[in-house]
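Input sequence (651 aa), recorded before submission:
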Amino acid sequence: MKKSVAITLGVVIVGAGSWVGATWYTGKRIEESSQRHLAEANEKLAKITPLFGLRIDQLKYERGLFSTQARYGLSFVKSDKDSDMPEGMVEFDTAIEHGPFPKSAVAQGAIAPKLAFVRTEVAKTDNLKELFELTKNVTPVAGDAIISFGGQATSSARIAPVQVEHEGTKAEFSGMTINGTFDRKLQAVTAHALMEKLSVDGEKSDDPIKMTVAGLTMDIDSRMGKFGLSIGDSSLKVKRLDIARPDEDVKVSLDNLGYGVKLAEDDKTLSAEATYQTGDIVLNDVALGNGQAVIRLAKLDGPAVKQLSDTYNQILRQVMMGASDEGLQDEQFDVLLDNAGKLLSGNPSFSIDPISWKTAKGESKLTFALDLANPKDVKNLTPQEIAVQAIKKIDATLVISKPMVRDLMVQYAIKQEGLDEVAAGGQADEQMRSVSGMAEMLNVGKNDGDNIIGKFTFADGMGDLNGTKIPAEELFAGLLGAAGMNGMDEEGEPEDPTLGGELEPAATASPAELMQDFDLDTVNAMLTDMAYSTRKEDGEEGPVLIIDPAQTGASDLRMQLLCNDFTEQCQDLVATATFRSKKPVSLKAINAWNQQYRWTRAYLDDKNQAVLQMDMNAEGGIGKENLQIMLNTYFSIVEDFSATIEATPAR
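Predicted structure, token format:
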């Protein structure tokens, strides 16, 4: 019996001694590796925060037999140019329970041997006194981690709730929880964050606004890829967002707002996909529908992307630190150019598939695909030559649902303008006719049943916009000219044929429908079909049609044909609307109109009356359908001009 007790007691003593010894060894191992891990952490901070430096310093480290107490400080790294960087340091207290069986880990069900259990929280210091007052003396940030001997860790963190009131604005933050894992060997991270609510109530402030964000979640699942870049998935979702500005009578609500990114790789390339989506959006009680956008990048050369990323971050850090080694910058520029060429050599592609918007009445969407190539001898090419050689193929399609757009117009007119359903529908129909006509006139789309469809393709040096061929030189000269890179005329002004005030027809017409000049009877018949009453008069340069202004808001409305005395052809048609407003119209309002609308010109006549004119030209031929569209467009603009000058304050 005595022998049995002695054996048992010996086993217990040996076991206890082994546990104590293992605990002592674990604590020593943790201490020896702490400085190495600290250096690695600072290196990673430098990479992920190139615009500003962050650094962690160990302020205290006291190792005991079963646990260690440490304190760390997080602060900005200052340079001579960083005078605006915040002063002070955020300090963290860390309690480390040594393995192999840290009690807090065992209490959470982790019964297998572990290296350590670590509890970290923000320390209460003078720098953070006000923050602790907001959290009612609860540490603003705290977290626990269970670390295994193989370098894997599971963690949970908590951000404390906050309530604050300042100058009439109240803010309430519900706090946030974050749970995740980390695998040191794979440099893999998973994390899930949840915030229940963030609300701001500033109705009593100088800038009244109310905002509520509910059900915000963030997720990460990434690992280090073979090219030295993190790959995987990340996302952010908001269950509901409400914003209101009572002083401006604006109220917006969004459901299920989301954003996600997927990064993937194969043996040679990287690919990326970004998805944006929103559920139903309501603006001032008008249901606008819901939408999504999917953007993809494919066939990106992996080593080239890594080198571009590293060089960019290096340049950024040098700029922030005030470095001025011009030779090094030239070398870095050459590296960027070289790797950009490698990137294009893989023929990368960019696509939008799709951007879409849906309502109960229909869906509108845009799809776009771009294939790229590597231009040769890029240093000796002009911007236009680079564009022509770099763009291998473009394929874009825009589909606009007429019922969808009409429904939005009707909803707005009923709820915001106070119209009844019949009046709102009539107004929407007229607006849709104008939009449809404008699309045809500008050749940006074709009417196809319930849709307006626009298509653009580019390949082998030739573009095609809805059937109209555009050579590469003309296409890119226009695009680069709009960007200010070329396309300047002799006087240094951008060439733009639409700025001359005349609206040239863009849609095609069959020979039977093509008019070489304006015919009074044809124009009069079109106006009659549009339900306008007319009478004819003789003018100094050709016949004039005096039109009953009806509901346009004009006091006098006429169209004059300008004819050649020798050929008797009338190749110009001038539409003129005169307005006798109750209050004088300011020149400021006239100038503002002319800056916004290119196809008409506004001015004050010798009686100080506002006049709106539009010129139409038939030189080279004009289709009857195009003329009808332009007449519809002009009458619509006349109504807009009338509303504008009536709403403009008097001088």
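Checked by second reader. The two ends are 115 Å apart (CA to CA).
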